[in-house]
Structure formats: structure tokens, C-alpha cells
Inverse folding.
């Protein structure tokens, strides 16, 4: 069988303490997808994963050489500036008007204009894809989401992530005219202050949280994005939180609360399996 070619577009070199233990972002994503493949019983030789530095080197794969792109997260603001999270226009957020981000947006637009290559985005990648679709990305006025957080699943999210065995009774809200059961959730690592402000036209909602309405976007056979970091394990998240504190993050209580949840159970492997089903065309909607 011809392997599925997945190009990981790296948007962050990661801090040294993580890179020295886990490798670059492409290595982390590869391990994440391999865990999903093991969960599904999918042979690893059915995947061919390559990595591309779209930030420092601005290198992109030729479209005829790939079947899927996965756009990673990015915490460049944290690693490069001690005035972290306080400055805009530094080329570190999905809404910044700088060459590497603009180039990435145009590349994604080119892929979305065709029908063969699938698109996955995680955190920053989710926001960049939203921007490519015409949505506004901005700093979240409701604050940060850090460490393991619950995401309330939309009805479509319940079907995709296989959470339908959870109770559907209890409180509900209506978003875009659709009833969401607030008891049906998945847990996922989060590390963001920026968000997509609203769903772009033509996409379906996957989930929401109290701090972020747009937690995931889906177009069958085309794109699947998540605001969270399912690729992170507990140790990676702990290193990020420690780095935030060491570099002078002002709200220490927020960091301490995030650290208290870092070892909570999360659904990273389940998400990896769903992403691989999407890539392989076996995801049931």
C-alpha cells in the first residue's frame, strides 16, 4: 500500500528543555500520530511523515509530493521576548502581518483551493487556517487557557470523537441554533491566549469552552482543526508552564492552577486516532 504523505509544517523551534528530550516539533507530532496509529492498529509503514520549517527557513513542500499538511502550534512570543504576551506585531501571532505568516496563509489558501490535500491545524495552526478562511484572529479578552482543560463537544464533535456513550441529559446551550449537551466533553492540553473570534463560513463546529467558542473546525474530507494541543504530553506542558513562570509571567496564580491540572487525564491519543481516520478517509461523520 502506498503510504499517506503527511507534511508537518513547523511554526516553532520549541525551547531547549523540550527539544533536548523530545526533539523538534515534527518529532513530537510523529510520536503523537504513531500513538494514534497504535490505537487503531494501523501499520506505521502506511504513514510517511516529513517536517518543514515554515518559520525560520520558510520552506514548504510541493503540493504534488504530499497528501496532508499538519500546521503546528507556536509559542514564539514566549521564547523570544521576556515582555511576553504584551506586544503585538512581532511575527508571533496568527494575526501578525509579517512575511513568514503571510506566506503560510497564502500556502494554506492554495491548498484549500484544491480538493485532494487535507489540512490539519493545532492551536496556532488552527488560528492560521481560520485566518486563511477569512476569520479574524485576536487576543482573547477572556484570558488564557492553560494545561488540561475540558472542551464541550458539539453534536458533530460527539460523533467524530466517539463520546456518544457519555450522558446526554443535563444542561444544554444553543449555539448557531444547535443544542449542545454540556455534559459531553473531551479533555485536551491548552496553551493559548489568541483565538479565532468566530466560525468562518462553510465550516462545522466541533467544540467550545467557557473561554473560547471556536475550539475546533471541520469540513468533511478537507480540514480538521483544534485550538488545543493534543500532541503535548504532561511533561511537555509542565516544561512550558515552568518556562512561562521563569520568564516572568505576571499571573503566578494562573500558572500554579495550570500546574495543578497538568497530570489530569486527557484525550490526546483519542484525538490522534481521529486525525488519522480523517487523513485515511475512514472518519465517519
Amino acid at each position: 500500500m502506498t503510504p499517506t504523505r503527511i507534511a508537518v509544517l513547523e511554526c516553532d523551534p520549541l525551547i531547549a528543555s523540550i527539544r533536548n528530550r523530545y526533539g523538534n516539533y515534527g518529532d513530537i507530532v510523529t510520536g503523537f500520530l504513531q500513538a494514534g496509529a497504535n490505537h487503531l492498529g494501523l501499520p506505521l509503514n502506511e504513514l510517511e511523515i516529513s517536517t518543514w520549517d515554515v518559520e525560520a527557513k520558510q520552506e514548504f513542500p510541493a503540493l504534488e509530493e504530499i497528501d496532508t499538511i499538519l500546521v503546528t502550534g507556536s509559542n514564539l512570543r514566549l521564547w523570544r521576548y521576556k515582555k511576553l504576551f504584551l506586544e503585538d506585531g512581532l511575527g508571533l501571532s496568527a494575526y501578525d502581518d509579517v512575511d513568514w505568516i503571510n506566506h503560510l496563509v497564502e500556502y494554506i489558501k492554495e491548498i484549500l483551493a484544491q480538493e485532494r490535500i487535507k489540512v490539519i491545524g493545532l492551536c496556532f495552526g488552527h488560528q492560521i487556517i481560520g485566518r486563511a478562511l477569512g476569520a479574524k484572529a485576536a487576543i482573547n479578552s477572556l484570558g488564557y487557557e492553560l494545561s488540561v482543560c475540558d472542551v464541550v463537544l458539539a453534536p458533530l464533535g460527539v460523533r467524530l470523537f466517539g463520546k456518544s456513550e457519555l450522558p446526554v441529559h443535563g444542561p444544554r446551550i444553543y449555539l448557531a441554533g444547535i443544542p449542545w449537551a454540556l455534559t459531553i466533553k473531551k479533555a485536551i492540553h491548552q496553551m493559548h491566549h489568541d483565538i479565532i473570534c468566530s466560525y468562518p463560513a462553510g465550516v462545522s463546529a466541533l467544540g467550545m469552552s467557557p473561554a473560547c467558542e471556536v475550539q475546533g473546525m471541520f469540513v468533511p474530507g478537507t480540514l480538521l482543526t483544534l485550538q488545543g494541543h493534543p500532541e503535548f504530553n504532561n511533561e511537555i506542558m509542565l516544561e512550558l508552564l515552568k518556562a512561562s513562570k521563569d520568564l516572568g509571567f505576571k499571573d503566578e496564580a494562573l500558572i500554579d492552577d495550570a500546574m495543578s491540572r497538568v497530570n489530569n487525564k486527557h484525550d490526546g491519543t483519542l484525538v490522534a486516532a481521529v486525525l488519522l481516520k480523517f487523513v485515511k478517509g475512514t472518519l465517519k461523520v
Q: What stands out?
A: The first helix runs from residue 16 to 22. The two ends are 25 Å apart (CA to CA).
